[in-house]
Amino acid sequence: MKVLVINCGSSSLKYQLIDMTNEECIAQGLVERIGLEGSVLTQKSDKGKYKINEEIKNHKDAINLVLKALVDEENGVISSMDEISAVGHRVVHGGERYANSVVVDEEVIKYLEECAKLAPLHNPPNIIGIRACQEIMGDTPMVVVFDTAFHQTMPEVAYIYPIEYALYENYKIRKYGFHGTSHKYVSNKLAEVMGKDIRDLKIISCHLGNGASLAAVKGGKSVDTTMGFTPLEGIAMGTRSGSIDPSIPTYLISECNYTAEEVANLLNKKSGVLGISGVSSDFRDIEKAASEGNKRAQLALDIFHYKIKGQIGAYAAQMGGVDAIIFTAGVGENGPETREACLSGLEFLGIKVDSEKNKVRGKLAEISSDDSKVKVYVVPTNEELMIAKDTVRLQK
Predict the structure, then answer these.
(1) At 191, is the secondary structure helix, strand, or coil?
(2) Is 139 a catalytic residue?
(3) Most CB contacts within 10 A, which of 64, 113, 146, 261?
(4) Average of pLDDT values for 105-110?
């Protein structure tokens, strides 16, 4: 069974074709600059790298181009569209209704449209991608997998904000959490690697990339996470501020003549380690600048590590202990210095990192010392495989 995994952004589309008989990625690609000048599709497979430069007006054109690349006589990996058994779509926000992935129908799409106001940058292109696939691929079964679904197991004490309760009742303002597909995948993968039943484990999962979040996973269920009503809450990120004093936005509006739109742009796109360092949102650039004596770059890194360290301590307290800590995503998987800095000073919790083991990049590996009471692992995430697995499961 071959599953096509689609992840639509506002002007981009990522995809993977996965053979679920052996869970191997047959091809993966990226369509960039949809609706813009210079649009391009890039696909990678065993046949090498394949590029198509042509006008891509909308997401329907993008889906058509993806299918064209997959069946291309010279560079394709399948003989026809009929080999695609199902399509799995990543959707950012599923609101409160869906705690699991679900087969696409009109009722599901209608609810996703209702949730669009909670994720205006993400859900609309997700829906466009689903509609485009329906139009082009006819009766091919489709499944949506939500970033928020894994976190629907959070208790009320974790997801209700200390504001007027009517705002939750009337407008569903609450913590939702994101990166759920990644946190679920790496937690289950870790239990498998450790040879443990996930129901017996207390795990803190650190998904660290340009967007970053931590999740407390107890008995295989998310009991808390750092991102909230939107992906802006939590720790400092590449360009996002993370949690700040709620009065700062109102102060910027009333005293500094910012508009609400300018504040949102500031907090989402000009803050985080970019805002502090003034260098970049790319941690490699910031680390280079810090090594050359840039004090603001070093401060940005220190704040990033400090926030993560504090959150690890908080989640250990809330779960009544921790058995394992996971580092995943771009920075988590490829940043030995980041991992060590985030855990330095947490020896009192029984966390000890082995400096030699920690030199690993992008590979599944234990990096804790032999006498560490808490095991620490690097676990590469694979959200696409998680989406494909749920898609297969819902076809049975």
Answers:
(1) helix
(2) no
(3) 146
(4) 92
Q: Are strands 221-225 and 375-378 parallel, antiparallel or unpaired?
A: unpaired
Output the known binding site for ATP: 14, 207-211, 282-284, 330-334
Q: What are phi and psi of 6, to 5 degrees?
A: -115, 135
* Residue ranges of the binding site: 7, 14, 90, 207-211, 282-284, 330-334, 383
Copy the structure tokens of residue 276: 């502090």
Tell me the pLDDT tens digit for each residue of 331-374.
Answer: 999 999 999 999 999 999 999 999 999 999 999 999 999 999 99
Q: Which pLDDT value is given to residue 37?
A: 85
Question: How far is residue 168's CA from residue 36's CA, in Å, rounded to a whole number?
Answer: 39
Contacts 24+ apart (CB under 8 A), 7-14: 7/89, 7/90, 7/384, 8/59, 8/89, 8/90, 8/125, 8/126, 8/128, 8/129, 9/122, 9/125, 10/121, 10/124, 10/125, 11/35, 11/36, 13/59, 13/62, 13/63, 13/66, 13/129
* From 147, 224, 323, 390, the catalytic residue: 147
Each residue's pLDDT tens digit, 237-250: 999 999 999 999 99
Say what the alpha-carbon torsion angle 164, 170, 172, 174 is, to the nearest 10 degrees. Answer: 0
- Say if residue 396's pLDDT is above 70: no
247-256 exposure pattern, b = at least 16 Cβ within 10 A, e = fewer: eebeebeeee
Binding residues for Mg(2+): 7, 383
pTM above threshold 0.85: yes
Instruction: For residue range 151-175, list pLDDT tens digits in order.
Output: 999 999 999 999 999 999 998 999 9
